[in-house]
Amino acid sequence: MPELAVAVVARDSEQRSILQLLVEGTRVARVAASFGSLPLAPADPIVRRLQESAPDVVVLDIPLSDPSSALRAIEVLHQELPRTALFAVGSLTQPQTIVTAMRTGAREFLERPLTTNLLLEAFVRLTTTQKNAQRTNVRGTVFAVVNAKGGSGATTIAVNLALALQTAQGQTALVDLAPLGHAALHLNLRPQFTAYDAIRNLHRLDSSLMEGFTTRHSGGLQLLAGASSPSEVQPSPAEFARLFDLLAAYFQFVIVDLSSRMDAVSRLVCDLSQTVLVVAGTDVASLWSAARIQQFLSENNGRDRLRLVLNRFRKIPGFQENEVETASGLRLFWKVPNHYPAVSGAIDRGVPLMQQNRSELTRAFTGLAEKLTETETTAKRPAWSLFKIG
Ligand SMILES: Nc1ncnc2c1ncn2[C@@H]1O[C@H](COP(=O)(O)OP(=O)(O)OP(=O)(O)O)[C@@H](O)[C@H]1O
Ligand SMILES: [Mg+2]
Q1: Which CATH architecture describes the domain 141-386?
Q2: Is residue 178 within 6 Å of ligand 1 at its C-beta?
Q3: Tens-place pLDDT, residues 207-241
Q4: Architecture of the domain delimited by 4-133
Q5: Burial status of residue 103 (CB atoms within 10 A of its CB: 0-12, 13-18, 19 or more)
């Protein structure tokens, strides 16, 4: 492994000294520069000094007392030093901070108190993924799929959307966080491990271990399987945030099947998603539920990320898109046609629609994947504006 040049940025002098010692202690990196103030704007002199020292990695401390300045610094550095990997060091007790750090461009979020071993593992992860994928600072995009009402079709849509993205773009993961995971059945896979096993091993998770926890479908899609029992012990939102931090480092697209899950984890996943698809039918109960779910998921912020997908759609005389949007409080994004025999046959046989020649349904999922990724490239906003810390 080539020696990495590291810059340490921490306002607190004690923290700065600790980080320097830890970096040197890994024996695979050396401290090339060290700064006691944060770059808060592109014109800040520190930015130029950092550009001159061109480190492979910036290790940046996020203090509990004032995370917002450090997060702003990550955003600035991500823009101004696009070839440098940013490692944030902070507390795992603040999931919003982790999410914001990863959205603004941090490559790793490392828990304080940091140890030489944890830092060494992060350096190894960095060099491995750089070798494998050449995607140092490119973060994967997360899309979540949630039901307005049980059985609306979230899993069918998540599974086929993930397959469509894998075919069109590659490097896609499907993460099953439904209360009881059905995605493996839809894909006819028999996973050895679940997302919960991955979280239990977060401290040592790197790219090869991540591979080990996922189950590969024939076309290359990787499934991080769901709970096979409703009594699965639930990790904290911070642990889920760390899992997604890692997933976004390895995959270009991460699709999350939330189905009818409605808790703090659903909110967290929605917060870190580019787009959240709320799946509903055209009936009054579904649309009423969609409006309630919309309120629940956008309690903090992020309402503009939620979109309505009408499943089992049938053309009916007098159907008005604007009435559906008013009733649900959501913008209509996509419609998936109604084909009960084809859809239920696909689930029962474990051969997803995207693997069959079901032209109308296949077109619907391919089109949904295209529309989502087209929105992503044309409308990607600076992530900073999506969160308020505190
Ligand atoms: N477009 C469709 N046309 C006809 N039937 C559909 C369609 N999509 C889903 N279904 C049917 O709806 C049922 C539920 O589908 P699915 O398991 O995908 O829903 P879900 O919302 O994930 O359910 P859960 O609430 O259990 O998580 C299945 O039996 C499936 O066949
Ligand atoms: Mg489901």
Answers
A1: 3-Layer(aba) Sandwich (3.40)
A2: yes
A3: 667 888 999 999 899 999 999 998 878 888 888 98
A4: 3-Layer(aba) Sandwich (3.40)
A5: buried
